[in-house]
Each structure stands twice: as C-alpha cells, then as structure tokens.
Amino acid sequence: MKRIAVITSGRSRGSNFEAIARFLNDKPVEIAFVVVTSRRAPIIERCAELGVPALYFPMRDMAAFEAELLQALRRHDVSLIALAGFLRKFTPAFLRDCPCPLVNIHPALLPAYGGQGMYGIRVHEAVFAAGERVSGATVHYVNEEYDAGDIIAQREVDITACTTPQEVASAALRVEHELYPNTVWGLLQKL
Ligand code: GAR
Question: Which fold would CATH assign to domain 2-100?
C-alpha cells in the first residue's frame, strides 16, 4: 500500500483532490492526508465525505508550515505529494529535505502561461486573450521556481469553440481531472 499527500490552499475548490481520490479508490493507494491552509476551506467537508484526514497547517510562516509538513510526511510514510491549487513556492531547504517526489498540476500547456501570478482564471484569461486554439493541462515536478520543474505529462484540449475565459477554464479542468489522477497513479507504480 502506497500513501500520498495532497496539498491545497485557501483558494482550492478541491476538484483535483476529489478526482484523484475517486480514481485511486480501487487501487492499492491511500491518501494519507490533505493539507488545508484555512480552517474554513470547503475541501474539509469533501475530505470528511471521502474519509481522508484534513490537516490544517497555517501559512503565516513558511518555515513553520514546511516543518509541520515534513513531520507529517515522515509520520505517514508518504511516497508522493500532489499539489492541488497550492500557490506558494517551497524553500530550497524543504525541497532538499522532502522525502518524496513533489508534483503539481497547472491548467495550461507549460512552459506557456506559467510563472508567478499565473493561476486560476488569470491563466485562462491570458490564453483566451492570445486567441489560442488549444489549451490543456500539465503535470510537472516542483522546483524552486513557479511552474518551472520538469514536465511529466501534458494533455491538450481544443478550445476553438470557447467564447469566454470561463469556458476555457472548464475545458482545461476536464482535462486536469483525467490527466492528474492517471499521472499520479503512473508515478506511484514506478516508485
Ligand atoms: C486547478 O485548476 C489547478 O490547475 C490550479 O488551481 C486549480 C485548483 O483547483 N493550479 C494552478 O494554477 C497552479 N499554478 P481545484 O482545487 O478544484 O483542484
């Protein structure tokens, strides 16, 4: 049985967490815990429904957050971390000490439309404003820069029929929900 951790933020809706949890439900993988950075995060309710512990680590101080996270990763013997809507950079010290691979999903075709400030609807507004015909999602390893780690998997979606950034976001999110669970499962099988 492998164990993973999912790290979210106050802005996370929890839809990627839920997609991963449902996909892994019949696999020999357990979601050891979900990190939430707000006591009022709606994702806490989803965790309860799915029987996954939600650990609240406040984000006031990144060093304290990372120290709590490292302890939890070791305590639960976690094999992989999946970020889902977590928008902060990790410190080089944490990335060095982290006992397992750390991956993220981004709602566009990196390296385009990534980097600092590029999250949520801002990504899709930029894609839409540029008149792109294709968008998609990217799963990548996390390093010290925003959205810049090695790309693990990418999937495209045709957005020529989209008339608003919100429609681009919905198209990309459908791709995310397929790509992320499959990629996480593929990585776990290789560990
Ligand atoms: C997802 O669309 C994810 O790609 C994005 O945050 C959203 C979280 O949604 N992440 C980034 O933009 C990272 N740069 P969710 O909480 O419903 O999974």
Answer: Rossmann fold (3.40.50)
